[in-house]
Design goal:
Shape: elongated
Radius of gyration: 18 Å
Bound molecules: magnesium ion, fe (iii) ion
């Protein structure tokens, strides 16, 4: 069925909506990760991995924008800015806790898995409408999200031990 408003097939319309959601998600990710990385003082390995993923995230947002523009030449990312504000609130909330480094890594792992699910859905939707360029872009992004999720999962125990060791030491800051 065609939409009267856009002339797009309803499946293409859904794909475009989900691409917009992904773009908002990446904007949110960039804000969250940047805040997180800037706060970290004593966990250089985690900080470096987050900084690597910030670069990947910025590139992902651009790739998704390109996908959106191929469907809608008037596309501007402006409508997707709501998530940035939300992310700022979440990042600020995280500063109140004395285990922010552990909570941050935990939330990071949850967020990467949200991204993994989103790109799995986008890949299937792009396939369904025959948008093979979007499918291929999302497959490439998915690899980066899986790598980040795996890295966090594989380092949660080590990070927790490092945090607890610092926390047990008098006059040593552990939280970040
Ligand atoms: Mg991402
Ligand atoms: Fe990610």
């Amino acid at each position: 069925m065609q939409s009267a408003q856009t002339g797009h097939d309803v499946r293409t319309e859904r794909l475009i909506e989900w691409l917009r959601d992904a773009h908002a998600m990446e904007a949110q990710a960039e804000t969250m990760l940047t805040k997180q990385a800037s706060r970290i003082q004593h966990y250089p390995e985690l900080k470096a991995r987050i900084e690597q993923h910030i670069t990947e995230t910025q590139n992902q947002a651009r790739l998704i924008e390109d996908c959106l523009r191929r469907h809608d030449r008037s596309y501007s990312g402006l409508k997707d800015l709501g998530g940035k504000m939300m992310a700022m609130g979440q990042a600020m909330g995280g500063m109140m806790v004395n285990d922010e480094i552990v909570k941050g890594a935990q939330m990071g792992y949850v967020f990467e898995n949200l991204e993994i699910a989103s790109y799995k859905i986008l890949i299937a939707a792009a396939e369904a409408v025959g948008d093979l360029e979007t499918k291929e872009v999302c497959e490439r992004i998915l690899v980066e999200e899986i790598a980040m999720a795996d890295w966090l999962r594989d380092h949660l125990a080590e990070l927790t031990h490092a945090y607890l060791t610092r926390a047990a030491e008098p006059h040593v800051e552990a939280k970040r």
